[in-house]
């Protein structure tokens, strides 16, 4: 079995992010990993929309939009990491702009991570447990081992759907 030294944790800063962070830290500690790399991708589609709005004369632009998001995400991650039992100098945050799945894969390969831990959202049907978005793309295309984190309420809903259906 491969030694896990570096773990990447994509964060969308959703209500489930704290659980993903806590789980990643717990798993990193139990595997004696050396580093946790938190990655957040600002979707290029959103930046393009802001740029379009700006071109219509509104006082907003893509650069300020991205800088504000970066500032807020740094603050949010700092809050999530308060009291976490993992060395601060062994954790790193990367915030970038682009197509989320593509950027995450490129960063994972470039940073030579050994494992990716990410959350998936439960949709209305069990078949959509892996959303058609970033999580599914990473699960299909990643050359790196992925661990799927389930927040308790999502896990409970999925269990219920399985027991109700079968």
Description:
- A 5-stranded parallel β-sheet has the order 3-2-1-4-5, with helices on both faces.
- Helix 2 crosses helix 3 and helix 4 crosses helix 5.
- Residues 122-131 have low confidence and may be disordered.
- It has one domain (6-165): HUPs (Rossmann fold, 3-Layer(aba) Sandwich).
- With 166 residues, it is an alpha/beta fold.
- It starts with 5 loop residues before the first strand and ends with a helix.
- It is 48% helix and 19% strand.
- It has 6 helices and 5 strands.
- Strand 1 (6-10), helix 1 and strand 2 form a beta-alpha-beta unit.
- The protein is globular, with a radius of gyration of 17 Å.
- The longest helix is centred in the middle third of the chain and has 20 residues, at 62-81.
* Assigned CATH superfamily: HUPs
> Using only CA atoms, what is the Rg?
17 Å
Q: Tally the beta strands.
A: 5
Largest sheet: 5 strands, parallel
Please specify the SSE layout and strand pairing.
Blueprint: E1 6-10, H1 17-31, E2 35-43, H2 44-55, H3 62-81, E3 91-98, H4 100-110, E4 115-119, H5 134-141, E5 145-149, H6 152-165
Supply database-style keywords:
19% strand; 5-stranded parallel sheet; 166 residues; 6 helices
Short description:
The chain has six helices and five strands; from the N terminus they run E-H-E-H-H-E-H-E-H-E-H.
